[in-house]
Amino acid sequence: MRTTTQPTRHHAPRNPPASRPRGAERRSHRVPARARLFGGAAALLALALGAPAAAQTATPSPSATQIAAEIQRFYDQTTTVRTAFTQSHYDRVYQRTTQSRGVLTIARPGKMRFDYLAGNGKVVVTDGATLTVYEPGDGGGAGQYVRSPLAEGLPSALGLIAGTARLDRDFAFRLRDPASFRWDGYVLELRPRRPEPAYQRILLYVDADPATRGVVRRVLVQDHDGNLNRFDFQRTRFGQAIAPSTFAFTPPAGARRI
User: Fold this and answer.
1) What is the distance between the alpha carbons of residues 217 and 234, in angstroms, rounded to a whole number?
2) Most CB atoms closer than 10 Å: which of 33, 182, 190, 200?
């Protein structure tokens, strides 16, 4: 049988036990649990996989420019979008939030339609040339609508989704701390390079997963008075066939144009 000889370890001289309180030496070498937990993402991953921490390589976080490029690249390759949405509008003066739901349909570039559900009946639609916003009247009345040329009526907040605006050309952007917005991913703040009367900034919420990071899951628009308009998208489908008639809207007979 082979005998293995352990190397001799040399320790620095210790003070006599009487010179310090009992247990002091044990406490001085203890590493706090909190320090171990927050020692870095690579160390946590190593613990989870049972591998040495030194063997792991931390993945650098993407920059704002990279996130913006992934979003732009994804939507440049997208022809149609159909998604359910939940809209939450916060009024700063009354400190009140109203919520509505509907379906958003997009054919890029420039064609878009919001159909509001649950008895709302509101329709916002552009056929690529004009923008129409229709609101039904109370009690089933014909209601009223606004119609304007697309260049005047579609701010770049919506143009980004519809394909008439570009992130790198039309916005200055930066990444925000996602924890501050209760989001498990990335939050990209956009500010228009040219003054926009309709809004002050836009926040785009995207996934942390690189495979789906170009897909916008939430859009938050803040106007100059501090009001907030948020759209959360669910059950999004890309590349489906959409009839051109979807974007041809005729207001009901008797609706008043304003």
Assistant:
1) 8
2) 190
Between CA 256 and CA 218 the distance in angstroms is 33
- Residue-wise pLDDT tens digits, 43-86: 322 323 333 434 455 678 899 999 999 999 998 888 999 999 99
User: Does pLDDT of 3 surpass 80?
Assistant: no
Token look-up 């304007």 returns: 148
Domain membership of residue 166 (yes or no) is yes
Task: Give domain status of residue 83, yes or no.
Answer: yes
Indicate whether 57 belongs to any domain.
no
Residue-range definition of the domain harbouring residue 80: 64-236
Number of domains in the chain: 1
168 and 72 Cβ atoms separated by less than 8 Å: yes
CATH of the domain at 175: 2.50.20.10
Asked if residue 87 is part of any domain, the answer here is yes
Pairing of strands 144-149, 256-257: parallel
Give residue-wise pLDDT tens across range 98-113: 999 999 999 988 899 9
Using DSSP's 3-state secondary structure scheme, residue 72 falls into helix
CA distance 54 to 46: 8
